[in-house]
Amino acid sequence: MKVMIVEDENFIALELERIAQEAGHQTIGPVSTVEQALAHAQRSDVALVDLSLSDGLSGAQLARRLIDRHRVDVIFVTGSPENVGHGIEGALDVISKPFTDERIANALSRAEERRRNFDSSKAAL
């Protein structure tokens, strides 16, 4: 599965990238702005998205666009889970910082399973 890392804090982005790769996924990014994320959306299956990006508190709006327009599954990874707001609808999970490797890997595993089930149901039609 192709996982886009949308995080503006370099250390956290590198940790998310490491966890996703160790779980067997390809990573895209990290990217730190809405514009960068949208440029890579077509190549992504799932995105790990922070609420606060380099261009402001834009993570929830980005998530809506990724979900609605690009069919990218979104998992929020944020220090302020209470601020996810309207972006939560359609998101697969909200993970609080600090996070554990296991928490991120489990969320990615659920996303992969959901995508597999969706693809197999589409193929049956």
TrEMBL record:
One of its GO terms (biological process) is regulation of DNA-templated transcription. Keywords: DNA-binding, Phosphoprotein. Residues 2-112 form the Response regulatory domain. The modification 4-aspartylphosphate is found at residue 50. One of its GO terms (molecular function) is transcription cis-regulatory region binding. GO terms for cellular component: cytosol; protein-DNA complex. It comes from the Bacteria. InterPro entries: CheY-like_superfamily, Sig_transdc_resp-reg_receiver, WalR-like. Pfam families: Response_reg. This is Response regulator. The lineage of its organism: Bacteria, Pseudomonadati, Pseudomonadota, Alphaproteobacteria, Hyphomicrobiales.
